[in-house]
Amino acid sequence: MSALEGTRVRLRPLAPTEYSSVFAWYNDAETVAPFDRFSVDTFDDFVAAVAAAPDDPASLAPRFAVERKDEGTVVGVVGHYRAHPVLEYTDVWYILGDRGARGKGFGRDAVRLLVDHVFATIGPERVGATSDVENVASCRLLEALGFRLEGTLRSALFHHGRWHDVRVYGLTRSEWATTVPRA
Ligand SMILES: CC(C)(COP(=O)(O)OP(=O)(O)OC[C@H]1O[C@@H](n2cnc3c(N)ncnc32)[C@H](O)[C@@H]1OP(=O)(O)O)[C@@H](O)C(=O)NCCC(=O)NCCS
């Protein structure tokens, strides 16, 4: 698959030489706790999950590396998954494991590319995302891209020793086509 080119980042498949550094992010509680959905116990499990992901719409494994265009470094990973066994929508997720890369617009550019890709290739009428209500950067990122807040799931996510409320966001194909900033 060719890369998806944004203004600040490109999305491309992870190279096997990058697996170990990405896997290390999954052992960083501050990076994964805000969503905490994809748990892999071993490096071998991680490698197997990445390999199997293209054939599994529900896979939570990373589907793209987020590469900074200015430095050529991989600063994060993103993915998408069929989130419900009956309802027909696809959720997106995203992490910048490189903390120094956060707050500079890379996340928003990456998710914009990801949403475009999901609408174009998987073809749902709705793309969704969830975010801990306390994850301000994640909520603002989604809202800046045009996602609408559809509701709040109370006490739906456990991390840091307590339950957290989770916001449910959604974006329809027609909203994305007509209202979303392209860069
Ligand atoms: C959430 C995350 C992907 C956001 O990506 P990012 O590149 O840091 O965010 P951006 O620079 O694109 O900014 C997106 C918005 O969030 C705001 N923002 C960024 N960091 C912020 C922070 N620490 N506190 C408050 N707002 C913040 C930006 O101002 C921007 O809002 P605006 O458009 O209203 O100005 C990234 O911070 C991250 O990976 N965090 C850890 C893992 C995580 O939480 N993943 C998401 C789980 S749902």
What can you tell me about this protein's structure?
The protein has 183 residues and is an alpha+beta fold. It has one domain (4-179): Gcn5-related N-acetyltransferase (GNAT) (Aminopeptidase). It is 29% helix and 31% strand. The chain has an eight-stranded mixed β-sheet. The longest helix is centred in the middle third of the chain and has 16 residues, at 106-121. It is globular and about 40 Å long. The two termini are 22 Å apart. The mean pLDDT is 92. Coenzyme A binds at residues 31, 34-35, 94-96, 102-108, 131, 135-138, 140-141, 144.
List the helices and strands and how they pair.
Layout: E1 4-5, E2 9-12, H1 19-25, H2 29-32, H3 43-52, E3 64-68, E4 74-82, E5 90-95, H4 106-121, E6 126-132, H5 136-144, E7 148-159, E8 162-172, H6 173-179
Parallel strand pairs: 5-6
Antiparallel strand pairs: 1-2, 2-3, 3-4, 4-5, 6-8, 7-8
Briefly summarize what is shown.
With 183 residues, the protein is an alpha+beta fold. The chain has helices at residues 19-25, 29-32, 43-52, 106-121, 136-144, 173-179, and strands at 4-5, 9-12, 64-68, 74-82, 90-95, 126-132, 148-159, 162-172.
Q: Which ligands are bound?
A: coenzyme A
CATH fold assignment: Aminopeptidase
Name of the CATH first level: Alpha Beta
| Largest sheet properties | 8 strands, mixed
Integer tally of domains: 1
Distance between the termini: 22 Å
Uncertain residue segments: none
Return the string of H and E elements.
EEHHHEEEHEHEEH
CATH architecture assignment: 3-Layer(aba) Sandwich
